[in-house]
Specification:
Layout lengths: L1 H10 L9 E6 L4 E4 L2 E3 L6 H12 L3 E6 L11 E5 L3 H12 L4 E4 L6 E3 L19 E3 L3 H7 L6 E8 L3 H14 L4 E6 L11 E2 L2 E4 L3 E3 L3 E2 H13 L3
Parallel strand pairs: 1-4, 1-6, 4-5, 6-9, 9-10
Antiparallel strand pairs: 2-3, 7-8, 10-12, 11-14, 12-13
Length: 233
């Protein structure tokens, strides 16, 4: 399968990203409470893995920084770096970002982490847990946006749950605040979009454009996103 993937990338219909270095984040982060519990979310990583695989098919040298998933490493020219927590994901991104041409931040990073890790399982029968104090995790996309150099292209994701108009306004606010070049909006209000599905429905938003796509497989969505990127390189 890996040989076939490499041949497919080489002889593929598009090598629009040949010579480009692409960074993709995918999956959730798990912020540990104790050795058996964590704060996380329902992200499977499928969207980010599809983007990494499609970028490799188009000739890019890809680094995929993945939170915990059950997915196999993508074949082809993809270096997969597996992490667990948000701070590890940030460190992995910062280690390659300066050499990156395109970064796509599709991971569903936990916004908060427990302030203190308990090194033994908290027993319901014996221990009283009145509260778990949380601290903010670093905003990876905003951190990279603050040090983005001329010529780099930074793409974020926005998952919303509300009405379309509000969702787009929120996405545009994130685009500006995090110094992104594009943001990919999807909403759980759309059937078949979001976590745990093999499909997605997205709107790709830039500073001077917005392009909405119909419900498609995540592989097709990855191709649409990369088309939007390559059109603006």
């Amino acid at each position: 399968e890996k040989i076939a993937a490499v041949l497919d990338a080489f002889f593929g219909r598009q090598l629009s990203l040949k010579g480009k270095k692409v960074l993709v984040t995918a999956g959730p982060t798990y912020e540990r409470i104790d050795p058996v519990r964590f704060i996380g979310n329902f992200s499977t990583g499928k969207m980010g893995y599809a983007i990494a695989a499609e970028a490799a098919r188009r000739g890019a040298d890809v680094t995929l920084v993945s939170g915990p998933t059950d997915l196999p490493d993508p074949a082809g020219s993809v270096n997969t770096v597996r992490v667990e927590i948000a701070r590890q994901m940030l460190a992995a991104c910062e280690s390659v970002f300066a050499q990156t041409d395109i970064a796509v931040m599709s991971a569903a990073v936990a916004d908060y982490a427990p302030k203190h890790f308990v090194d033994r399982k908290i027993k319901r029968e014996h221990d009283s847990v009145d509260s778990i104090e949380l601290v903010k995790n670093p905003d990876i996309a905003a951190t990279l946006g603050a040090c983005k150099r001329a010529g780099q292209l930074l793409v974020g994701f926005a998952l919303e749950t509300g009405a379309t108009a509000d969702a787009e306004a929120n996405a545009r606010e994130k685009l500006d605040r995090k110094n992104l070049d594009m943001i990919v909006l999807n909403t759980l209000a759309d059937k078949g979009a979001g976590f745990g599905t093999d499909t997605n429905k997205v709107t790709v938003i830039g500073r001077d454009f917005a392009e909405a796509f119909q419900l498609k497989s995540k592989a097709e969505v990855a191709s649409d996103i990369l088309d939007c990127i390559t059109d603006r390189l």
